[in-house]
Predict the 3D structure of the following.
Amino acid sequence: MFIPGPRRPVEDATAGYAGGDALEAAASRLRRAAAEAERVVGQPVRDVRVVVPAGWGPRRRTWMRQVAHRAGLPQPRLVEAPVAVAEYLLATGVRVPVGAFLVICDVGAGAEVTVLRRGPAGFEVLATLADAAAGGTAVDHALADALIGASTTEGQRASVGDSVRVAKEALVSHPAVTVPLPDRPPVVANSAMLDEAVRPVASRVAQLTQETVAAAELTVGDLAGIYCVGGSAQLPHLAAAIAEHTGAAPIVVPEPALAAARGAADVGAVDTGTVERVEVPVPPVRRAAAIAVPGFASLALIWQCLLTAEEHGVLGVYHSVSVNWGEFTMAAVMALLACLAAGAVLGSLIAARSPTPGTRTEGGRVSVGILAAVSLGAAIAGLYAVVTSQYFGMPVGPYLKWALWPIAPVSVMAVAMAVVAARQWRVPHGGWSALLAAPTGSIVAATLGMGLIQYSLTADRWPDRILWIDIAGRVGGFLLGVAVVMAVVTPLVFRLILAAPVAVICAAIVSKRAAGMLGVIYAIAVATWWATRLWGRVIRPAPSAPAAPSEGPARAGMSLGGGG
């Protein structure tokens, strides 16, 4: 190990080395480790595997490759730390069936908690959260403050850092130890001091574990196990805090500080003889409903639009068709919403058959799924336009305009979500599937409302039915107004306040000329709903939402170590 706090930003963690050149500081230590490996093995190093945190983004992964290049080593293979640990568990005889879920709590200088799923091709990351202040470094600082006083400077704390770290490790198995201090008499540290220093860190790691499981859209009952690794995994109270928060007792891996480095050598090994397969859990009913409701709504709207369109002709020469453009637009919007709700499922199906490793990560899978959903939704909307124009023998231009333009804003925001997911900036609270699901209540109300409006505009107006037909149209406008408010406004109080005036206005303007405008209004409401979700859940989430995974450096195979 050459970086005492490897999860801190690279520039800060290596500021004291090589004149502040972080790249050269890392390369010099890696170069020394490679020279020692060559001396022991007796031949040059040809296969370099570097263990990195699952939360690292492209910038720091590129930085690590530059370190290996500066050290004169071959192109390294970057192995995510939780994947390496999972491979180590398999190598030591732990049974992990295909389809099973694991939680890896990596507690070194900082903490990183990751949920993994074992697939046929290996382990994939479903969710990962990190906190650089929840690990051994925070315990060291608290223990140093207890021994030499909380008013000490950072420099004074650093001067006793080695002694404090040794004392911390000794207190795990001894009730008290003597700690030598420079320029002052030695002091006695006891287990009570260590307990006091560890408790807030253990509580934060347990909270991260709970949040990561929720971000992966799983429950503790879905997990095959929770495993603790890293230099600080054996600290007292850590396992108890995780068990208290999650309801499942974690397992501390033997020699936890070396598990990732040893497991990195097993990554990519294929074991086809003893693989036990289990069925992947069926998605919850609510998730299936989020896909089915807008899908059936889209089919119902386009079906009614086609069957109730009015054709006009004069002596077989002039031919025109009156289509409810609002209903046509809403059919396209509903089709896109159904595809987006299925985005996470589409991504999983594509990743399962893709040879590209990037699509197997959670971010890559979600990103590909969203892009596929946008493409599929736009294709269905375009298909509606082409089929309708051909059915009536009319030019396709107006139909494409009313089908594609209203869904353009939602498509743009969905692509923005795909970019966020691909870069793994953050996992939204509740997971991606919950984020992509449109409000079912609003969809049902809007579909019923537009259906009643179309019925009132096209039904045979017999004298004894005129009143009821008009009432049906007004009720449809009222429901559509309620659906608009449900899409735009979330708090119940504001919904109740705005629903009445908006619904009354929509009911009052129901007519053939206003039908298209009502459909566009609902498309704008859906775009507004997506914009608020993108901003409030992904770009600027509320403070209570799980924080984005830190990209601070962690340990790397034979170069970076998870400080205790």
In short: Residues 1-20, 269-283, 543-564 have pLDDT under 50 and may be disordered.
